[in-house]
Amino acid sequence: MDANAPLLDLQDVRKTFRARGVRVTAVAGVSFMVRPGTITGLLGPDGAGKTTLMRLCAGLLLPDAGRVVALGFDSRENAGGIQQSVGYMPQRFGLYEDLTVQENLDLYADLHGVPKAARTARYGELLRLTGLGPFGRRLARDLSGGMKQKLGLACTLIRPPRLLLLDEPTVGVDPISRRELWLIVSALAARGDTGILISTAYLDEAERCGHVLLVHNGEILDQGPPAAFRVRMTGRSFFATAAALPGRAIQARIMSDAAFLDAVVQRDGVRVVMRPGAQLPALPGIAFAPVPPRFEDAFVERLRAASPMPPAPPAATPSGPATSEVMVEVRDLRRSFGPFEAVRGISLRVERGRIFGLLGANGAGKTTTFRMLCGLLPPSSGSLAVAGIDVRAAPATARSHMGYMSQRFSLYGDLSVTQNLAFFAAAYGLKGARRRARLRWASDTFELAPFWNTNADDLALGFKQRLALSCALIHEPKILFLDEPTSGVDPLARREFWGRINALAAGGVTIMVTTHFMEEAEYCDDLVLMSLGSILAAGTPAEIRARSRTPERPNPTMDDAFVALIEAHEAQVRRAT
Amino acid sequence: MNRQRLRGLIRKEALQILRDPSSIAIAFIMPFVLLLLFGYGVSLDARHVPIALVAAHPTAQTSGFFSGFQQSPYFRPRAYADIGAARQALMSGRVDAIIWLRSDFTRRALSGGSAPIGVIANGVNANNARIIEGYVQGVWASWLAAQARERGESLVVPVDVRSRVWFNPALRSHDYLVPGLIAVVMTLIGALLTALVVAREWERGTMEALIASPATIAEILVGKLVPYFFLGMGGMGLTVVMAVVVFAVPLVGSLWVLFLCAALFLLTALGMGLLISTIARNQFVAGMIALVTTYLPAFILSGFIFDIHSMPWPIRILTHIIAARYFVSTLQTLFLAGDVWPVIARNMAALAVIAVFFLVAVARISHKRLD
Lengths: 577, 371
Hints:
Largest sheet of chain A: 6 strands, mixed
Distance between the termini of chain B: 24 Å
Structural class of chain A: alpha/beta
Number of strands of chain A: 24
Oligomer: heterodimer
Helix content of chain B: 55-70%
Strand order of the largest sheet of chain B: 2-1-3-4
Structural class of chain B: alpha/beta
Radius of gyration of chain B: 28 Å
Number of helices of chain A: 18
Shape of chain A: globular
Strand order of the largest sheet of chain A: 6-7-8-3-9-10
CATH class of the domain at 8-229 in chain A: Alpha Beta
Mean pLDDT of chain A: 85
CATH superfamily of the domain at 8-229 in chain A: P-loop containing nucleotide triphosphate hydrolases
């Protein structure tokens, strides 16, 4: 076989599934190749068909039409041959949580027929590569999310495969672990004989691939090296700043101008992308500086071309003058689970109409804090008031002022849109005219009317998110809790979602949000960065970024700041113990 | 089959069993609790049945007749002065039957005429009612004989029934219910063990990784069967020990035959569990299916409580596909009668056919794909 012959070759692959009697097209005519020594990235939002494509490549699904040839095996004729030789890491990697790191490695070494004599050297290499060396005897369940993913990767690499298929290895992993995973994958590709296909929903990871496939609705929208995507966008990206205006206000003004394709709040301004051929308009008080284009710009352009421009986010009309009413007040909050202290005495204060972000690596204590704030989990000690009500003393009363939207949306999949809304309205005790008015409000504000009788499970992800948000807001809460609200939705839906959140905040609703997307942290007015149960840094996004400024990195991104602050803190904790 | 892969899979499963208490709980605690509950709860023996004794005109004869009840372990008799009070006791459930000797009983019995004995039984509990009926007959017969002996005569009875009860001379219902119970309980345990653990692998996403590995379907299945076979045999051993020690059921047959049959039966149950888990990839659904398809048929259609011969023929045919039916009969035979090979060999052959059927079906249905 020629050294540069493709390791993986897909030709016009199609796959449909039958769900509730309806045929759903998951993959619609996809062709691409993976060559040795390259990292091919499969990028696209959730539901784009990435996982189905990965499973087709691994021979776990057979195509309805077209051909999948991996390492010379046609999946239709010899799926077993593919499984004998590729390395495949499914999204929820199959680690056995009640086995130790070493036992998991042993199992996969046995399954892949690694000879006993070769193991010591191979284990040593993999443990060094993943930094798992000191944790050989720890149970997989006790590893952090990032460490689990690294162990999964080590198990997949136990017998060096020529073709490596990685299905969203970085999903739900904090920025530090994401960087480490990418270092491992890049080192592997640099050896030259291994081809890697990796899927991800993080668009910024495109830059780390040699070749990028942009997937949307089961089709490849575009493919090529990431630089080619960027080149096309040259001269169209700017950074807009205004001395007196906060980023969100600049964004609202820019989105109302048709010359702009995209506007995202970032640092102290707004990153904007122009429509092709459009001239930079003169907006009083706003200064534009050119910035290098990035991959996401190209993606947004392709998506906007595929679907019409959404309306600008609803205009923000503050209800009454800004007050400094304190909506959330937490003092020395602690929570232990047995001997483990998940939250170690945190204090914070949120004023009305602010967007307050809670950031942190996996296991930092974000979710535990959130649950205590919502009155779902009693604190071990400390005081906790939401909307002026002591949550510990009167959790039910406090909850009537809260709306909560979780990552998984918590909708009833078998109920229709209207039934879901009616249920949540009833659960919050809405009756008669008020109830009718709120249902009408949900239908109008979130444009749900066309789907009024569709079951929640059958909605597209973006609409599911809208429905979940409208259910959380049905009782007009004073404070809205959002737990990783935008995981997995495409960049356009994410922008639309934040537009709505901004409008709510401007209308006086206080927003508490956790997120893994560092660029979303920029949307917040105030942030706290949590690590190992404590607050590491608190302040505005600009203040937090400034704390990690170094001579080598005069202008750090939120991602850089996150990594630097957490690494410094963890090193300090390790020294102390 | 590749030995290294198989060894790896079995070792993994064994480690999981040791670390995750749930499969150990299913294999040992569940049969322990079920056997105790049913063993003490399910009994067909009538004991200490409350009865009312009414003698309208008490005499030496009536108390002689009643003494037969007073010494019996089956009854807890209570004397009532008149039939009205006794009726009320029956209506309010304080007694299950009334033995009523009218005022002319003594006169008619002594005069050699026929003396009527009134028996009123609460037929709601048909089983107790039948026992009371039979017992009254027995008491009556022995009382007559005693009366005759007193008079120096011998009672002439044209037919003499001399019954011998073989294999369970004491007629203890425990002795045949407990072995049957072992079969019923182990059907559930065996199916649950495999159904839940395979469904758990689907839920946690480990199955996808396993399928995408070089391991073959046969290796994955055998890798599941072997560890849970040993675990299930452990549970089986526990139930046999409990039967002998706690419930004092005699074990007449030989232990090795018992374990040979148990092994064969466990394969049918484990195979059933594997089949369930290939269909339901969710622990809750798998658990419900296991309960409905194994436990209930084993309870109702195995002949454990309800006699198969008295079922209507379509249901009788249906019982032939229930593995527990053969194991119930094997266990009852082994515990009470001994190694009766004609019975055991026939049952073992049926169990083997069912086990092979399930395992082949699982191997056929499972494939290394996700759709």
